[in-house]
């Protein structure tokens, strides 16, 4: 056993007597799961937040965050085909590095997935409230937002989380099929936005390109601004492909389907984001939509496309929950695997015999997600989610390079070319983005992991039952 704790065998999830999930998903389901997770609040809502931090330079923030995510996505693709088990970065670091690092990654993933669901629920609530206002049925202000946004309780956010959790409880394949149709609807709405906004493109809106600078600067309110500060937040808009890796144990042909699902969804979304961001920034000065909770719909209304804005809002209301579905699905699978390894209570790993769904973890996760969405603001939630994701991506980049040395002959259906280049690209890029997160976010993330360390030492380490690589359990 190394200083990082015992390591899990690659085939531990498939040993006799181990609880497993049903293989019901093909690559179209996985691509849709990835696109559904990636294309969501990031482009529909955080475009305005990023523009407020970087001005037109937010387009560069998209490029930088996308490049770093691409490095991580390729690392995920190799590991997902090499270790076709649920658990994502938690499982990969458990196999490559050891239990202690895996716990930190798993604890960070709990933060990522849960908080992402909450962030999207808050973003969805903004579109829903805007739509209700547009049709003359405004929601009471107290029930349309959390305390920091001038309300008391974000009721729409809670209700959408409950609805998505109910869908997941029906069954994995059923949820994935509905998700695929909703993803197509969402993509159609983004195409409509680009088609309507591009005729109003004005290059003058990009001058100056970087009004707040490239590297981190401090604004009048004491907060971080600049292209890199925005990239640390915009980063939220790109990840989601990691949710695909949590489905490895439910893929019909993991070696083929995981590669297509992860790389395909990431590549498609990079192209979509560049087109949408360029159209929005070219059509309207960034200051006009930087503070809007529904920036793309706001752009359409400002261009005199009121009906299109309503349609866009309706599509966002209907299709944005695909992101919640993807991440809530991913979170329950992380809980499932950690419970199967003994690091969480055994009941969390129980799978319903009829639906094949981990019911307890789905319900419990939805309750926590709803509580966060009800009371916390979007910007702070998104930044905290980014911290957890960045930690996981660093571990994945390291795991690829470690397994190239410790298991060079292990089967790899997808073999990453120039692994050190992409592995270090993911590690160094994510560390740099972490340093550009708000200081308060960094401290909250540190506090979260201090709590996690206490949970591990006080309970999880004593209940671990993971099978080691070695027969002696070392």
UniProtKB/TrEMBL annotation:
Signal sequence coordinates: none
Membrane topology listed for this record: Multi-pass membrane protein
Annotated GO CC locations: membrane
Domain of life: Bacteria
Transmembrane segments: 30-53, 59-80, 101-129, 149-170, 182-201, 227-248, 260-287, 307-330, 356-375, 381-402, 414-435, 441-461
InterPro entries, per the entry: AA/rel_permease1
Compartmental location: Membrane
Keywords for this protein: Membrane, Transmembrane, Transmembrane helix, Transport
Single GO MF annotation: amino acid transmembrane transporter activity
Keyword Mitochondrion appears in the UniProt entry: no
Protein name: Amino acid/polyamine/organocation transporter, APC superfamily
Organism: Sphingomonas jatrophae
Lineage, broadest ranks: Bacteria, Pseudomonadati, Pseudomonadota, Alphaproteobacteria, Sphingomonadales
């Amino acid at each position: 056993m190394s200083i990082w704790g015992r390591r899990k065998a690659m085939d531990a999830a498939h040993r006799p007597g181990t609880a497993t999930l049903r293989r019901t998903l093909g690559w179209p389901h996985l691509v849709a799961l990835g696109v559904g997770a990636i294309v969501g609040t990031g482009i529909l809502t955080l475009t305005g937040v990023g523009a407020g931090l970087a001005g037109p330079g937010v387009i560069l923030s998209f490029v930088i965050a996308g490049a770093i995510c691409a490095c991580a996505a390729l690392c995920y693709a190799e590991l997902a085909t090499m270790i076709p088990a649920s658990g994502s970065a938690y499982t990969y670091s458990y196999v490559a590095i050891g239990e202690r690092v895996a716990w930190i990654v798993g604890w960070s993933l709990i933060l990522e997935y849960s908080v992402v669901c909450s962030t999207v629920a808050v973003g969805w609530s903004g579109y829903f409230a805007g739509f209700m206002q547009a049709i003359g049925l405004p929601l009471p202000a107290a029930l349309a937002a959390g305390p920091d946004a001038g309300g008391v309780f974000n009721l729409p956010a809670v209700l959408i989380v409950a609805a998505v959790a109910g869908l997941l409880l029906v069954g994995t394949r059923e949820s994935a099929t509905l998700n695929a149709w909703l993803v197509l609807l969402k993509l159609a709405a983004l195409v409509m936005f680009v088609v309507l906004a591009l005729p109003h493109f004005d290059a003058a809106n990009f001058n100056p390109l970087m009004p707040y600078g490239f590297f981190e600067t401090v604004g009048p309110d004491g907060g971080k601004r600049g292209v890199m500060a925005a990239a640390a937040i915009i980063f939220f808009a790109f990840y989601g492909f990691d949710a695909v890796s949590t489905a490895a144990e439910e893929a019909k042909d993991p070696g083929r389907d995981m590669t297509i699902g992860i790389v395909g969804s990431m590549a498609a979304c990079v192209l979509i984001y560049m087109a949408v961001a360029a159209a929005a920034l070219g059509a309207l000065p960034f200051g006009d939509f930087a503070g809007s909770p529904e920036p793309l719909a706001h752009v359409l209304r400002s261009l005199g496309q009121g009906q299109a804005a309503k349609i866009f809002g309706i599509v966002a209301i209907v299709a944005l929950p695909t992101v919640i579905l993807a991440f809530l699905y991913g979170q329950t699978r992380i809980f499932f695997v950690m419970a199967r390894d003994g690091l969480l209570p055994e009941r969390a790993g129980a799978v319903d015999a009829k639906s094949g769904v981990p019911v307890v973890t789905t319900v419990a996760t939805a309750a926590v997600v709803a509580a966060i969405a009800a009371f916390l603001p979007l910007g702070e939630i998104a930044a905290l989610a980014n911290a957890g994701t960045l930690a996981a991506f660093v571990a994945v980049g390291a795991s690829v390079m470690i397994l190239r040395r410790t298991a060079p002959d292990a089967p790899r259906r997808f073999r990453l070319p120039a692994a050190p280049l992409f592995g270090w690209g993911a590690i160094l890029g994510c560390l740099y983005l972490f340093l550009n997160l708000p200081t308060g976010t960094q401290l909250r993330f540190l506090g979260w992991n201090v709590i996690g360390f206490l949970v591990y030492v006080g309970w999880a380490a004593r209940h671990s039952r993971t099978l080691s690589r070695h027969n002696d359990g070392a």
